[in-house]
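Listing S7. Sequence submitted for prediction.
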Amino acid sequence: MATELEELVGFLSSPSPPVKKAAVEIVRDLTGSEDGLLSLSKHASTVLPSLSQLLKDKKEVSEPAAEALINLSLNLNLAAKMVEMGMIKTAMDVLYKPDSSITRLLVMLLVNLTQLDSGIVSLLQIEDEKMQGLFVMKLVRSFCRSSDETRDDPFDHVGSILVNISKKEAGRKMLLDSKRGLLKQILRQFDSTSPLRKKGVSGTLRNCCFEAENQLQNLLLISEFLWPALLLPVAGKKIYSAEDASKMPLELGNVLSFEREPWNDPEIRVEALESIYLITVQEAGLRAFWSVNGPRILQVGYEDEEDPKVMEAYERVGSLLVHGSETGEPSSETSK
């Protein structure tokens, strides 16, 4: 005889819209508690496909279904089962339907599923040569097209997906592929007013810089976006002299010649400095850094810095610059 929970899960597939709506709302509420999650996880083989189907339904049903899946995907075993059953393709298909009304929730579900290696592989479409990278290109396009002037931009969380996929070499290579031009598009979002977007761009760039040894050329090809994204957060608050600014490209010199908002997030400053370190470890990267007056920017920024972790990151780059000066580059101190 079926238990109450089995009956409830069965009602998710009911042909009656009111029954289906009531059932999915109860399931959604159950996923909000540890006990509920545990009970539902025992019926994963039924509940996950049923909820997946409901994503295609009207908003009154698809919304609680998506919320339930987000909560269930916090459990790594259940997230792995979702990836295995093709949840990423389902989420992407629904996300890009013209009448999609649960965009933010679907993006958040993708954030959770790409915490797993299998989820990253699925989103990158690595196993499908013809379609490879299509999902990522769509997400990047949406990330770059949507406006952060609205407080509730549903694509803000795409930044977190990009951070996740760039933790894997295949993801970094896809983003750095100069023919696709994805990283260039992503970096243009760095002046967004959304802290979530800024974090996403910063974390993605830092991860991509781990490929600097083999992909330095592709990073330097987008220098006009790369150096502002890396140097403006760590440039400090001072207005730079005309002499200093004249030794920088316009995209840096123009901004640093005026008063500007400080970058308050120490995590972004640390990530920028870690990225600079990964680039300047390479000889050609170090030369490129000197060519934009990078050492002077770090010197000024370091003088303003008060956070110990960020100061440590400055000093790590500083040690490379001192070494660079020993090999013929002009010296610049970044120590207090």
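Caption to Listing S7: primary sequence and predicted structure tokens for the chain studied. The two ends are 75 Å apart (CA to CA). Residues 1-116 form a domain with the Leucine-rich Repeat Variant fold (CATH 1.25.10.10).
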